[in-house]
Design goal:
The protein is of the alpha+beta class and 846 residues long. The protein has 21 helices and 24 strands. A six-stranded antiparallel sheet has the order 3-2-1-6-5-4. Strands 14-13-12-17-16-15 form a six-stranded antiparallel sheet, with helices on both faces. Helix 1 runs parallel beside helix 6. The protein is flat and about 150 Å long.
Length: 846
Amino acid sequence: MSTRPPDVVADLRRENARLQNENARLSNEIREALERQTATADILKVIASSPSDVQPVFEAIATSANRLIGGFSTAVLRFIGDELHLAAFTPTNPAADDTLKASFPRPIVEFPPFMLVRDGQTVELADTEAEDVPQLNRDMARLRGYRSMLFTPLMNCGEPIGLISVTRKQPGTFAAHDIHLLQTFADQAVIAIENVRLFEQVQARTRDLSESLQQQTATADVLKVISRSAFDLQAVLDALLASACRLCKAEFGTIRYQRNGEYRLAATFGCEPEWIEHFAKYSTTPDRSSVFGRTIVEGRAVHIPDVLADPDFKRPEAQKLINFRAALGVPLVRERQPFGVINLFRFEVGSFNEKQIELVSTFADQAVIAIENARLFEEVQARTLELSEALTYQTGSSNILRVIASSPTDVGPVLKAIVESACELCEADDAMVVLRDGGDLVFKEQHGSIPVVWNRLPISRNWVAGRTVVDRKPIHIHDLLSPEGEEFPDARQFALLTGVRTILGVPLLREGESIGSIILRRTERQPFSDRQITLLQTFADQAVIALGNVRLFEQVQTRTKELSQSLDELRAAQDRLVQTEKLASLGQLTAGIAHEIKNPLNFVNNFSAMSAELTDELNDVLKQASLNESIRNEIDELSRLLKENLQKVVQHGQRADSIVKNMLLHSREGSGEHRPADINAILDESLNLAYHGARAEKPQFNVTLQRDFDEGAGMIDVFPQEITRVLLNLISNGFYAVSKRKIENRDPGFEPVLSAATRNLGDAVEIRIRDNGTGIPAEAKEKMFNPFFTTKPAGEGTGLGLSMSYDIIVKQHGGKIEVETELGRFTEFRIVLPRTGSNSAKRNLT
């Protein structure tokens, strides 16, 4: 048998030892992993077994983390509001533990680790004695006896809600699996916190739903009682009060509401006979000394947790008799006015919660409905008795309305129908209508057996019809021959002639003014009933309607004529608007033509200028050629003529280019913002701009500017940019005119002056711009606002400035522009602008 070499045996031994060490390491890792998994599972079990309390989970996490990570101490901290609270920790020694507990809660801003973990990162402090460690952490480490720390945050939806810290006695870093384990514990803590929060929400919601279900059931039961006992008010109030006391845990209660001017006891629950007797004798005057009175006075729910502690409560006899302590009053409200109260009482001190008060408020609404139902039922019963009589009256009234509808232009048939119906339905011997005519009453219509002994009488309070018109109210005389009739001497005289004893007069009122009266008469002493008086007032209203219809018909006829005239004016305005639109379309066409002309015109100008330069170059080249004198002279002459022609082409092309630019400006619609603007400020700014522009172009230019601005001119509604264009154009023309006069006259004493003035014209503003320049010839004045017309030399004007100014002032702003001039002396432009621009009028037309 061969033996192995010593070196092979040694290698095998070393490999065997390495394998044993590796096996031991793997066994330790497996054991540690198993312990971590077991701890994680145990914590999950704690979470599952404690859905409503997170404290056991925090304590299990602190214990497991400290054991598995090999920590000296572990703490679980929670962020609540702006404070840090100690949720759980592993003890070290009593003194250090007491110090740790005493340092919490504390503001988060005073806790440095929060700043390290607030972004969700796990942080470790390898040595708490390092210089970069916060002093607070260093002091706590020395007190509790550790040198290294590991923090991991509890993150919920990206926000830190707490942290877990693990400490060790020795300095040094933590292993990756320890960090991962602590992060797992942090996730489990967050799960536990969320579970408790959700559990509490579910519990609260369940309680709310259960309470709401009870309240809804009670409300439904009360509604059933109301529907089944629509005319038994007592049953409804008893059921309603019983439900309110039961659901609000009140020992007894009452309902009291106002009937016939007194607050009477309507229902009780849980009351002893002597209590009911006391409540029945209760004062009917509401005041703040009782819950009932205070509820009526304040018109809202009144809640007293302890009546003995309430300074305003002054019903000692009731409290001594019943010995109640807590009280609630909820008003019964009809048409925003309290007329009764539901009172609930408890023998123990305590508050009624908001839901209970809201529930009683619902019952109060139901009680109001029940009370109103009972009242309406009684009214319906009484009303039914009246309907038969009213039907007769309505029939007579309807007949009159039909007459009114069929006779809109003639009041005669209506008045005849009214006196006939009034005489019949009111059981009168006579009915007549009189109408006001200035200071008299004129007889118009009559039906009955009593003769009419007058046709026109002055309006006077001495007779019934006259007094109804003067006083504008019904006058009812039971007996004209009694002392009552002494106030009406003229009426008594008529009564002696006609045998009338009872008389009723009702005024015809239109917009508060009396226009006549209806009179009913009886030859026997028999007063008219209230219903008959009401019916006669209805007939009076119908007479007023008929008279008003005739008056309105006449007014409609007049108004129709006015509207016809307005229609003609509107059509004329529409024609003007159409014309304006046509001008706008023409402007667009002009703009299109100008754009089309501009490019070929630019080519003409450019090539003309280039050809002039080429002519000079051609002359230079020909100078080197040997030509006889006559040919050279002819060539020079032709070149000169050609160059002059090209210069003229360039000059006129530039004028055409200027015309095209102004055509584009002329065709442009109003630009800028249409808004109120200070006309004085616009005019002053335009003067300054024009003056400085002229000085920049010709430094030697000088002119005296005179300003006369009316402070009352103020704000007007314009397009400021467009008005500025007009003013700059007129001012620049004035500068040109004074400069031209100074050059032409060569008068050393001539001083150029341009003045600008404004005036307040009320609904409009006047602007005047005057210069002492050359003036405008009469033949030019008539054409000055025409497009392309100008008196300036070629190249100095396009003839579109005044045309654009006219369009802006007249067409765009609805104003006017005028000119006064005297050749060789002055030119003055007068502009009138309305304070409100014409654009609003155009919008109204469209």
